[in-house]
Amino acid sequence: MAVRPTLLVLQYDGGAYAGWQRQPATRTIQGEIEAVVARLLGRRVPVVGAGRTDAGVHAVGQAAAVQFPERWSCAEAVRAMNALLPPDIWVVAARRMAPGFNPRRDAVERTYCYRVGTDRGARSPFRGRHEWAVGPLAEGRLATAAAALPGTHSFVALSAKGPDLARHRCRVLEAQWLRREDAPGYEFWITGDRFLRHMVRFLVGLMVEIARGRRPEGDLGRLLAAADNGEASPPAPPHGLTLVGVRYPRHLYARAS
């Protein structure tokens, strides 16, 4: 049976899951998707994600790859998977990709958004699942801190300890805080070639402390030159973070899907 790598674009609410990566006896995004693919194809097929979102982190543009039979059209695969997936996971689209496609290795850009609320309503159960209630913040301090991020830096002092730190240099293409239009608060948008474990959450945690006046304005730039994360602020909680999208070179997309 001929198969081709198929790119899945996924949305999910991560609140009920222990992150992306498959784990024994624990619900994960990867585990749920692989279970559905196994039901459809009659055998276990690995689903490889572009990144391993943490427990509680959401996505509106996660990318994953699965080897689907060529006899299935992409539209058929999307309909069949969405009919079986739980309601908090949804396949937005599917695309045929070039042979050898790897969603993690081949990604050239990833974009995340972190949402914070500055009013009392941010603690509402209807908003609190997807934003961090932080109280008043100094907007100018947020902007100054984010302005230090574009470029290639070492993020060893602004990420979790672990194997990712063996390669701790990342290139940030864009980073900015924007006022929210739906409620009082801000969104932190960041695009880079790669991200270390908990890196965005460490950045947000530090910048919020700066905007509260609890740390000097120049601390982010200083920590970009530090050798470890001993002076980092606690990372922001995971539920405010969303993986927005992953970009791939155009030549990796097959001409017909």
Write up what this structure looks like:
With 257 residues, the protein is an alpha+beta fold. The protein folds into 2 domains: 3-105, Pseudouridine synthase I, catalytic domain, N-terminal subdomain (Alpha-Beta Plaits), CATH 3.30.70; 109-244, Pseudouridine synthase I, catalytic domain, C-terminal subdomain (Alpha-Beta Plaits), CATH 3.30.70. Helix content is 19%, strand content 28%. It contains 5 helices and 10 strands; from the N terminus they run E-H-E-E-H-E-E-E-H-E-E-E-H-H-E. It has helices at residues 29-41, 74-84, 139-146, 199-211, 219-223; strands at residues 3-12, 48-49, 58-69, 89-96, 109-117, 132-133, 151-154, 169-179, 185-192, 241-247. Strands 1, 2, 3, 4, 5, 6, 7, 8, 9 and 10 form a 10-stranded mixed beta sheet that branches. Strand 8 and strand 9 (185-192) form a beta hairpin. Helix 3 (139-146) crosses helix 4 (199-211). The longest helix has 13 residues, at 29-41. It is globular, with a radius of gyration of 19 Å. The two termini are 18 Å apart. The mean pLDDT is 93.
Distance between the termini: 18 Å
From the alpha-carbon coordinates, what is the Rg to the nearest angstrom?
Answer: 19 Å
Largest sheet: 10 strands, mixed
CATH superfamily membership of the largest domain, which one? Pseudouridine synthase I, catalytic domain, C-terminal subdomain
- Helix percentage range: 10-25%
Low-confidence stretches: none
* CATH class designation of the largest domain: Alpha Beta
The chain-level structural class is alpha+beta
Number of beta-strand segments:
10
Q: Predict the CATH topology of the largest domain.
A: Alpha-Beta Plaits
What sort of overall outline do the alpha carbons produce when their principal axes are compared? globular
Strand residue percentage: 25-35%
Q: What number of domains?
A: 2
> Treating each run of at least 4 consecutive H or I residues as one helix, how many helices?
5
Write the element-wise H/E pattern from the N-terminal end onward. EHEEHEEEHEEEHHE
